[in-house]
Amino acid sequence: MIRVTVWNEFFHERTEENVKKVYPNGIHNAIKDFLGTNEDIVVKTATLCDENCGITDELLAETDVMIWWGHVKHGDVPDEIAIKVKEAVLGGMGIIFLHSAHHSKVFKLLMGTTCNLGWRESNDKERLWILDHNHPIMQGIEGRYFELEAEETYSEPFGIPDPDKLLMIGWYNGGEVFRSGCVWHRENGKVFYFQPGHETFPTFYNENVQKIITNAVRWAAPVCPKIKLECPWVARIEEK
Amino acid sequence: MIRVTVWNEFFHERTEENVKKVYPNGIHNAIKDFLGTNEDIVVKTATLCDENCGITDELLAETDVMIWWGHVKHGDVPDEIAIKVKEAVLGGMGIIFLHSAHHSKVFKLLMGTTCNLGWRESNDKERLWILDHNHPIMQGIEGRYFELEAEETYSEPFGIPDPDKLLMIGWYNGGEVFRSGCVWHRENGKVFYFQPGHETFPTFYNENVQKIITNAVRWAAPVCPKIKLECPWVARIEEK
Amino acid sequence: MIRVTVWNEFFHERTEENVKKVYPNGIHNAIKDFLGTNEDIVVKTATLCDENCGITDELLAETDVMIWWGHVKHGDVPDEIAIKVKEAVLGGMGIIFLHSAHHSKVFKLLMGTTCNLGWRESNDKERLWILDHNHPIMQGIEGRYFELEAEETYSEPFGIPDPDKLLMIGWYNGGEVFRSGCVWHRENGKVFYFQPGHETFPTFYNENVQKIITNAVRWAAPVCPKIKLECPWVARIEEK
Amino acid sequence: MIRVTVWNEFFHERTEENVKKVYPNGIHNAIKDFLGTNEDIVVKTATLCDENCGITDELLAETDVMIWWGHVKHGDVPDEIAIKVKEAVLGGMGIIFLHSAHHSKVFKLLMGTTCNLGWRESNDKERLWILDHNHPIMQGIEGRYFELEAEETYSEPFGIPDPDKLLMIGWYNGGEVFRSGCVWHRENGKVFYFQPGHETFPTFYNENVQKIITNAVRWAAPVCPKIKLECPWVARIEEK
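Output (structure tokens, whole complex):
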């Protein structure tokens, strides 16, 4: 059983009518809804509205994979919380960053770079080209590409370390390209960045997007019990 | 169910007493024996003694992962057979190259380089250091390293493309190091090279070696039905 | 002084009026013309019209970087010649593959994959996005992207090993993306693939294209005398 | 002209007799001495003894490549200074981390991981195996490996992101291996980690070590004027 925690800043959905219409219970619950239909996955949620962002040591210890969505409230996540999450990842917890989470504190801490990108608020059509159909995260996605009728436009250069594996490149009819699906290993933790998911569009109801996030959860889950990951070889090293 | 074919040149075990003692039924059957104990894996074998090396289009179509051991008879594998196997890999079949298979035609075709290395016939102690405990191929291997009491010594520089992921580095008491566990993606196929396995040593009875090969089989198996891999997006491209 | 050999199949320019108009002396001479203006570069050319493709052991020994353009006559390059060039690369000669050279024998031998791609004959506008402005090959290219008014459209998936470094992604107004600037290391040799350069367009007169090819020549040139590369450490290894 | 700043915590050399004997003017001056003999390199130094660690915005603006040595006083470098240096790297300044600088704040910020490793104070013999003789950093290093009579032992697993290019693997007679020469790109900045250089050993007088550091300086220097790097394309992006 893979234990997932979906974290959402949950701001636009409470304050903007057009977003509320698309995600009436928040993006976190939209994600919980489709993930929860899988027999091997159990889902909790936490948001910026919860005390301490809803993130405790206990929650992290019981989370195999965290999913993160944030946008305009990155600065409201306390540094200590961001560092705690980063350390959980280094110890083996998988993590999936969605869309504007590219500027979340946790992502920037893990990448070590600005994670800047170019962008336009738009309703460009996006076409996501798939580079490797046999990667576990792309399992079941057919065709050379799939499309989203409308997404916010992101563009290169994206200020990230080169991904360990580039899975998708996004094409926008406005003239931009973006590395839309990126995989990194950070010590014991697996990291996936997935670009779609602007709050005003129904992206998280798209079948391919749901498949990819579900696949990514299974891929990012640690392959050893987390207690083991934190323990044997680390303990035996005299650490400097 | 993962369908594995273990290919072995099966020469030393028939012609040299000291090897016959270690692997009386051949290295292929030693591998088949431990792989076959897994409920999700079925194993066939093929050798250089079989007509056409025992490799037919039908066999390749029904193989999810091939395992390859060869040493002094690489040249006896006809080019057409080697090319056939390479193409099956590009179409999605996983492949695991063991020890001296670094100089097999199939490996060299897939790598595009000489695959040369330094070597000494020896009975050096080897210590295999693990770089990523959370990779599926390393699942269940505990400690920072594991040891083999005796192995043939391989050394850098190893004339390969940089692996997509380096999993293990071998240390030899004689003074050498070697990239002993290497992962590549080649189009739709996953490739793993694993250095241990000289014919005169009981390496394939080692518990860690068996675990790693078993893990690698599960990792290398295609995540879509192979017929799909060869088909949808390839068909839709006007290929140049 | 960097010694460059530009190889061209030199077929379209002799047989098709519209191509002849763009490159009256052949693509090889168009490249020679701009490379030759650099004081640190000397350029020879060779074509399919020459005996043995104009490629001799002596020429390879005296070439630091080879540039390769081919399209419909890949099959006319004898296997022995292609293998000779591949081996020169593994020994330290740099090589730059342009446009449809993705299907040349030498490129496919070095990559180990089909190197297939999607394509449309078109006169799409292409916009080349730059991922790393501080790579030697991108030196002096300003802006986040540069454009070509018309190019043949290439699209993903491109059947190559993941590049060691991805430098550019091409966007086409028809809806495609392509990994347009890719770097690999193959043993002692440096390899650069650069997508623009269809025979019917004046791509090789574009200032940015010329800068990139010139930069790539300097980047790909071996950093030790080639005789050294072929020699000291290779000689000292007992090769298997 | 490449402008280098060598930063050293300069503690052991002032407080311990055995270190003072080896580096009477500090490790920074030992490095300055050999770098300064090159006509294309000018060297400044800065240490923890200087006000604000000797690091100002002006110094960073005038530094093309920084070299960093630290060990027991990492915590005394103020966070603001470490962040300033990190940002200079992301903007294009090259940086070389030596030996125990693996635990410096700047390195850990750039890597995003713990950068933990195993270690033994020892005087093990180290043998550094070279994986790519044609990389600019390895220029002029002959043979398959070179040796240091005595070094502190470092061992895997090294808690770093996989390097973009692994150049050297260290072998220690005590049984350890280590990724001793690692290259990363971090946005506009080039990063090199080089493991030798314990304060009690005369490592920085070793000819190969000096050559490698000198090569790395030339490799890490930005290929565009730094003012340009910070400017054109960054300015044109609407940054999120």
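Residues 227-240 of chain C have pLDDT under 50 and may be disordered.
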